[in-house]
Amino acid sequence: MRDYPRQLEILINELSKLPGVGEKSAQRLAFHILDKDEKQVEALADSMLNAKRQLRHCSICGNLTDSDPCKICSDPGRRKDLICVVETPRDVMAMERIRDYNGTYHVLHGVISPMEGIGPEDINLKSLIKRLQTNDCEEVIIATNPTIQGEATAMYISKLLKPAGIKVSRIAHGVPVGSDLEFADEVTLLKSFEGRREL
Amino acid sequence: MRDYPRQLEILINELSKLPGVGEKSAQRLAFHILDKDEKQVEALADSMLNAKRQLRHCSICGNLTDSDPCKICSDPGRRKDLICVVETPRDVMAMERIRDYNGTYHVLHGVISPMEGIGPEDINLKSLIKRLQTNDCEEVIIATNPTIQGEATAMYISKLLKPAGIKVSRIAHGVPVGSDLEFADEVTLLKSFEGRREL
After folding, report:
1. Residues A114 and A171 in one domain
2. Range of the domain at B22
3. Mean per-residue pLDDT for A135-153?
4. Is residue B167 part of a domain?
5. Could you report the per-residue pLDDT of B6-31, keeping only the tens digit for each?
6. Which one of A95, B133, B152, B153 is separated from A182 by 20 to 30 angstroms, measured CA to CA?
7. Percentage of residues in chain A with pLDDT exceeding 70?
């Protein structure tokens, strides 16, 4: 018996399903929500429902969007023959922050991971092949994460596309700018050696 | 330009208003919510709205409840002449966890804090006086937090009730059980000296 009223118990339970939210944090969030005006709680609840109901995956690139095709795919100023392949919509947003890339994206919504039973057919790869068959493409830049699964996925895509004569590249991995060499891990240092360029 | 779809921007903005949730965490939560089924998002949103709409403050003790009077106030097994005064409904739940206290509560929903412009009339104090006038009371136990404001509030209540011949007590503050004396701060140690009891 914790003597929570039922509605509070349900709320804490739902909140504790969020990532990084344990029972204590869920309690704190729940009491914070109860302290707000009903209007503010409605705004929060509506924002969740609206986002979930109105956001779709772009039929071309798979990115999150409220219009189809998405802003980037329908922008005439962006190069359709340059495609950057990423794992998630968050990666698209990270890439967009550099404000320098003027190509388009392709969001895989995952990576190939045999351990978890995720094969090439489980990620958004078919639509990439279709895209490449119907449109001329100069280069596919693979920007999956430098994890085992991300590397395996990059390899798989590269082997799939190269026979078709498509230029496939991988983003560079190395010591991040602003960090200290002595704190870089061995794999990062190895990558930065492998990716060295002549000055 | 962050190129977020509008609904996502609104969702992230709403989530970042939660305590302890910065922009990065709000983004993470937002994408997590978008990855869920619509049913699951509805359950989360509904749990907030239901809790906010159906939970009230008990008209007797001020605790959060879905029925009025609350479970504790309407329990014939709980002593109505023993009242523990706490700051928030969370404190009631903490007290209930000891499973030993069989009196009732009074929730102030705040503490007196002249710095923040919160006076005695801004907290749930009037209803405590009314309670004491209409019912016999053997003891009022003040369990506000051991902060400056909590102590001031305890003092204020004690000075208010003592002339009426009501026994007022304060919970003990000292070295917490299971912790180490050498890590206790000076104020805690002082309190533990002041509160020493003969063995």
Report:
1. yes
2. 6-54
3. 91
4. yes
5. 999 999 999 999 999 998 899 999 99
6. A95
7. 98
Shared-domain flag, residues B149 and B172? yes
Which of B28, B71, B92 has the CB atom closest to A19's CB atom? Answer: B28
- Specify whether A31 is located in the same domain as A122: no
Q: Contact B53/A38, CB-based, under 8 Å?
A: yes
A17 and A114 together in one domain: no
Q: What is the largest CA-CA distance in chain B?
A: 70
- ipTM comes to 0.78
Is A125 a member of any domain? Answer: yes
C-alpha dihedral sign at A20, A24, A27, A29: negative
- Global confidence as pTM: 0.76
Q: What residues of A are in contact with residue B33 (Cβ under 8 Å)?
A: 18, 48, 51-52
Bridge partners of B172, per DSSP, are none
Helix (H) or strand (E) holding A80: strand A79-86
The answer on B49 and B85 residing in a single domain is no
Tell me how many domains chain A contains: 2
In a domain, B151, yes or no: yes
Q: Is residue B21 part of a domain?
A: yes
CATH number at residue A26: 1.10.8.420
- Are B28 and A20 a contacting pair at CB < 8 A? yes
Beta strands in B37-195 (DSSP E): 56-57, 64-65, 79-86, 103-107, 139-142, 167-170
CB contact under 8 A, B48 and A33: yes
- Bigger pLDDT: B107 vs B175: B107
